[in-house]
Amino acid sequence: MSENPQAFVNPASGSIRLTGEVNFVDAEGNLIESIESPKLCGCGLSKDKPRCDGSHKEYVKLFADVLRNARELVKPCMAFSPMAKKARDIRENELAYRLEAGETMVGVKVGGALDSPNSAEPTSVMIFGYLTNAMQLTDSIKTANYIYPRAEAEVVFKISKEISAEIHPSEVLDYVSHVAAGIEVFDYRYGQAQIYAEDAIADNAGAAAFVHSHWVAVHEANLENLTAQVFANETELETAPLTAIRGNPWLAVALLSKVLVENGAKLPAGSIVFSGSATKGLHLAAGNNYAVEIKGLGRVELKAI
């Protein structure tokens, strides 16, 4: 192999280009062939490994289909650790698929995920997933349609004007018209497996279903010193202050604006934002009645059937 070889990883395709002469050897170290500046597979789809055969062009569609099949069959799929750009492309593919099927985007959910399995000390990063009208529940959820559904107590915001640029925390009230209490149901299609940010993004941040209480005009809402209570069959399971949502639920909107800009996304006026969980995810079991109450904001109920 040539001295000081260079490797370039294409951020769009994942293919790997090596410079200079590269020796391919078998398991015993015997030379098979020498190739000048080969292009190698970095996505795992090539039928001529280790060479790249262009199969990465089907990467987004392939794994988007895998995730959709997992939802339709209600059977978890394997996590596949896509590159960051591919993860975003898969999420956008899912939204496009839903819109083509006649659904309407109604907003986003804010979530968090560990940044990388390769980090010595992984940190949580903010991610988001799209919500559509088909995900909205009324008063019940059929758990058999989901893989491992978990519910979180959240503050929900209705956006009064388009978010297309990063906004300062002091500007948030200019962008919000109403507030509500909500239950966000997330259901990662990898089942209970530990996943990291790229897989979470590809799976649309686990967005599966949601329901919220009646809207309260923003000038009537005071979120200071409020707590979220979670009930199952009228038994309180957990109570958490709203400050558990990134220190301040309002701040979630400002932080979300930054993430949207980084992803080249906009949030139209009238959209809703599930700002993140104040409580731990609660597994939904058929036969139970669940409720989230935020005194001064509202109560929302959901029957698992």
Walkthrough of the structure:
- The protein has 305 residues and is α+β, with helices and mostly antiparallel strands.
- It folds into 2 domains: 7-53, no CATH class; 58-304, Fumarylacetoacetase-like, C-terminal domain (Fumarylacetoacetate hydrolase, domain 2), CATH 3.90.850.
- Helix content is 17%, strand content 34%.
- Strands 6, 7, 9, 10, 11, 12, 15 and 16 form an 8-stranded mixed sheet that branches.
- The N and C termini lie far apart (63 Å).
Name the poorly predicted regions. Answer: none
The CATH architecture classification of the largest domain is: Alpha-Beta Complex
The count of domains is 2
- The helix/strand order is EEEEEHHEEEEEHEEEEHEEEE
CATH topology of the largest domain: Fumarylacetoacetate hydrolase, domain 2
**How many helix segments?**
4
Task: Tell me the helix content.
Answer: 10-25%
Relative strand content? 25-35%
- Radius of gyration of CA atoms, rounded to a whole number: 22 Å
Biggest sheet layout: 8 strands, mixed
Mean pLDDT figure: 89
Q: CATH top level of the largest domain?
A: Alpha Beta
What is the 3D form?
A: elongated
**Total beta strand runs:** 18
Overall structural class, as computed from helix and strand content, comes to alpha+beta
CATH-defined superfamily of the largest domain: Fumarylacetoacetase-like, C-terminal domain
Distance between the terminal alpha carbons, to the nearest Å? 63 Å
